[in-house]
């Protein structure tokens, strides 16, 4: 997998703006602020600068997909060989609940999902975006933007929609909810040039690059296969050992007891392995990329939607023609 220091891009973008004006790009002199750990007693609005310490969505999730096709192969939208793909970087509240589309002035999602801020008819409508696609903002930022864009086109891959729509969705639905991404944490000029998007995308990439799910599983002989299923417990322990905390393992597809193999079983977990969510508390700004792994059930709840029976979880091979070497 091609790896390089994407965070360097984010830092560079911040340095450029902080030299213009304090209270800009990286927040007001965040390098001088104590990088308190999100969700700790010290990381509260009023006690710290919310541009420098995450005070809103302090339970941070770095999420990944395993798709077997994109639906847009004919347009060259392919999956990276030997690698999972990036879903997003999300700010949950410290208690595990969350909000979305926190700044409708930075709404770039052409298909808001849900279509109101609360997901119910009573919420504020999220208007669909019809402007230039977000990749054009990155291109306009020159080399750092183009370098990041090339990486995103390899590793941040959507299914049944163009990649740019997934990126816009992740930014507008999630990034706008981090306290450290509030408009007041950027200069007017940085916002105008959409450097907040470049910063979010590069930090999301940085977290992703440190979580090589494919390699961690392969090291335990858990490789995509259309002929054998795996045990959820083997997947969980392989990833927990490397991440340092149990991630959430997401499955879709049929429930085990609706399949021939699971007929009569009480295990109604799903059987197609499609997602991993890694949980963190973060030191200082989420932009700093300094996460402390925490258990996926830190606020309670389940750490998987998958079936628990042995060999019940299918980690399918990609469809022919769906991958590219990266
Ligand atoms: C979780 O925390 C958020 C933010 O502090 C709060 O608004 C929400 O009511 C809390 N939810 C629950 C279920 O406690
Ligand atoms: C949101 O979607 C629902 C279901 O498609 C639709 O009935 C509703 O009118 C939409 N609301 C807005 C604000 O667009
Ligand atoms: C699957 O399991 C659930 C709960 O264990 C049960 O309620 C459901 O009836 C089962 N379905 C089938 C098709 O056996
Ligand atoms: C493996 O199975 C998945 C899921 O059914 C399918 O999409 C894919 O094309 C298969 N891959 C190969 C190489 O047969």
CATH topology of the largest domain: Ribonuclease Rh, Chain A
Q: Strand-and-helix sequence, N→C?
A: HEEEHHHHHHHEEEE
Instruction: Write down the overall mean pLDDT.
Output: 93
The molecules bound to the chains, other than polymers, are: 2-acetamido-2-deoxy-beta-D-glucopyranose
CATH class of the largest domain: Alpha Beta
- Please bin the fraction of helical residues: 10-25%
In the CATH hierarchy, what is the superfamily of the largest domain?
Answer: Ribonuclease T2-like
**Structural class by SSE content:** alpha+beta
- The appropriate CATH architecture of the largest domain is Alpha-Beta Complex
What does this entry look like structurally?
With 326 residues, the chain is α+β, with helices and mostly antiparallel strands. It has two domains: 6-209, Ribonuclease Rh, Chain A, CATH 3.90.730; 213-276 and 297-324, no CATH class. The chain is built from eight helices and seven strands; from the N terminus they run αβββαααααααββββ. The strands form two sheets. Strands 1, 3, 4, 5 and 6 form a five-stranded antiparallel beta sheet that branches. Strands 2-7 form a two-stranded parallel sheet. Helix 1 packs antiparallel against helix 6 (195-209), helix 2 (134-140) packs antiparallel against helix 3 and helix 3 crosses helix 6. It is globular, with a radius of gyration of 20 Å. The model is unreliable at 1-26 (pLDDT under 50). Residues 93, 95, 97 line the site of one 2-acetamido-2-deoxy-beta-D-glucopyranose. This is ribonuclease T2. InterPro entries: Ribonuclease_T2_eukaryotic (IPR033697), RNase_T2-like (IPR001568), RNase_T2-like_sf (IPR036430), RNase_T2_His_AS_1 (IPR018188), RNase_T2_His_AS_2 (IPR033130). GO terms for molecular function: ribonuclease T2 activity; RNA binding. Keywords: Disulfide bond, Endonuclease, Hydrolase, Nuclease, Signal. Its EC number is 4.6.1.19.
